[in-house]
Model the fold of this input.
Amino acid sequence: MFEQAIAQPIFPTHVWLHALKAEDAARLNQEILAGLDKRMKPLPAIAPGQSWQSSQDLHHFPEFAELVKIFTHASKSVLDTMEVDYETFEITGCWANINPPGAPHPPHTHANNYLSGVYYVQMPAGAGTICYHDPRQQRDVLEPKFKKLNKFNSLFQNVKVDAGTLIIFPSWLGHSVPPNPSQGERISISFNIMFSDYARTISPPRWNGIQLKRD
Done:
């Protein structure tokens, strides 16, 4: 009946995935784990199903300098791809997430920043998923029963990640992490970036984590 029928995406929401070379990721991840062990442990007790997060100044510690360079390089690449007109940007917060078995991370956004990212340091088998939530408020005004969930009807999109993966996304995009189904700890490093003239007054995180030990 039709000469052509296509589904054209309108206003797509992008996330950018960067995979380090396996040998570089293995070395870097060991260095990050050693740095976290030095700066965070011993970890305080938490309730079952809860997680640990460090304070948000990880990017100021020398143990994580190489990781900060990677974050900066990848963020610049994303901004350049988007053709954003800016003078400078900076990391406004950077912190560690440690999810023990059974621990999820509830839905949230990263307010007052432009881009956010997560680098995966330790990923037990079966735990490598981040879930993005449909940002369109009108989407659930009418929600019929679907035969099968797919990219055209789902309110969520799961992205598979592994140790050595860096994912960058718009800070306004809601996301969550399902419970860790493994018997090991899922460890990641999150960060935000903002244009420098905003960063000093608006963007720093408004919550507190475990204070890192200083030299």
Notes: The longest strand covers residues 89-99. The longest helix spans residues 22-40.
